[in-house]
Design brief:
Elements: E1 2-3, E2 11-13, E3 20-23, E4 32-33, E5 37-38, E6 41-45, H1 51-60, E7 64-69, H2 72-77, E8 84-87, H3 93-96, E9 103-109, H4 118-135, E10 137-146, E11 157-158, H5 169-183, E12 187-191, E13 193-195, H6 201-208, E14 213-214, E15 220-221, E16 223-225, H7 226-238, E17 243-247, E18 253-254, H8 255-266, E19 273-274, E20 288-289, H9 292-296, H10 306-316
Parallel strand pairs: 1-10, 6-7, 6-9, 7-8, 9-10, 10-12, 11-20, 12-17, 13-16, 14-19
Antiparallel strand pairs: 2-3, 4-5, 15-18
């Protein structure tokens, strides 16, 4: 179904002062503000590490918020949240049937692959995107992609104009989904390496004694706190920004510098040196990702570098 020009709602006026009391086609009573503008609505596909704080933030900003989560158990766990949550598989048309008659100002696709392989990527990111775009009525579509699509290995700076020709099949699938969204006038947010409460793989490896510094430790890490990812997606929705945007904190850093800081904070020795990990699911890369385009629009991360973000995690432990 995809985006279409919004119909001018037929205003039904009461005999008591001519107040607007509703609009044709509404599934539930709508709120009206000055100028008869209806409350903005958003559907978030994926209500996990990024989607949950995103949904809460939209609610706080006054948006009518709906979310799709993968299982009935997940949906039940969200019953006390101030938004509507539905269980479903976004690759199945039946998941969207009860939403087909509703128009959303924004649809955000931030479903996780669940650490799946290429077939899972194709289902969630490509087929899922196609299904959402074909069977929902919306104004804007935002797709959460990854900076892994930049395959550069020489440590150079990359921005949205840089080549994105990934080697691994998983990242190539992301590129296909990106092209689908961008070709329809939508928005693609390439998220850097996510971390946050309950999710920081390098930190966990240090704590478990499994960390390894690859070669000389000069490979560049590009990081992003989960709350900053959510804020960026909401920012793109509220500013009605279309096109391609890198979402990353302000300071790429060498792997060795990351480990030096963490090990100093934890009073632990540096991990041993080892070879490159060429089995990374999205491929081995080494680049510095720029967030300049997004920041020029007015977005700034809560955690401008990994130090502020990781310090907040350590303070919680």
């Amino acid at each position: 179904m995809g985006p279409r020009l919004p119909l001018c709602p037929e205003k039904i006026r009461s005999a008591f002062g001519g107040a607007v009391i509703g609009s044709v086609g509404a599934l539930r009573p709508k709120k009206f503000v000055v100028g008869c503008r209806m409350t903005r609505s958003v559907l978030i596909a994926g209500c996990g590490f990024v989607g949950l704080p995103l949904a809460r933030s939209f609610v706080s900003a006054g948006w009518e918020t709906h979310a799709i989560t993968a299982s009935k158990t997940s949906a039940a766990n969200l019953h006390s949240e101030p938004f509507s949550a539905y269980a479903g598989d976004i690759t199945e048309k039946s998941t969207l049937e009860h939403l087909a008659d509703r128009r959303f100002d924004v649809v955000v696709h931030c479903v996780s692959s669940g650490r799946g392989d290429a077939s899972k990527y194709a289902a969630v990111f490509l087929a899922g995107t196609q299904n959402l775009m074909a069977h929902l009525d919306y104004g804007r579509f935002i797709f959460s992609s990854s900076t892994s699509v930049y395959a550069q290995t020489d440590g150079c700076w990359v921005d949205e104009t840089s080549p994105a020709d990934p080697v691994r099949e998983t990242s190539r699938i992301l590129r296909k989904a990106e092209d689908l969204v961008l070709g329809s006038g939508g928005t693609v947010a390439r998220l850097a390496g996510l971390y946050g409460p309950g999710r920081c793989a390098p930190l966990q490896k240090v704590l478990d004694g499994r960390a390894i510094i690859e070669e000389d430790g000069r490979r560049t890490l590009n990081t992003l706190h989960g709350l900053d990812a959510a804020r960026a997606l909401q920012f793109l929705a509220e500013t009605k920004s279309s096109g391609l945007f890198n979402v990353v904190d302000n300071q790429p850093l060498a792997e060795i510098d990351w480990f030096r800081y963490i090990c100093h904070r934890l009073h632990k020795p540096l991990p041993p040196v080892g070879p490159r990990d060429l089995n990374r699911k999205r491929g081995w890369t080494n680049k510095r990702v720029s967030n300049r385009k997004l920041r020029l629009l007015g977005w700034d991360p809560i955690y401008p570098t990994f130090k502020e973000g990781v310090s907040s995690l350590l303070a919680q432990d």
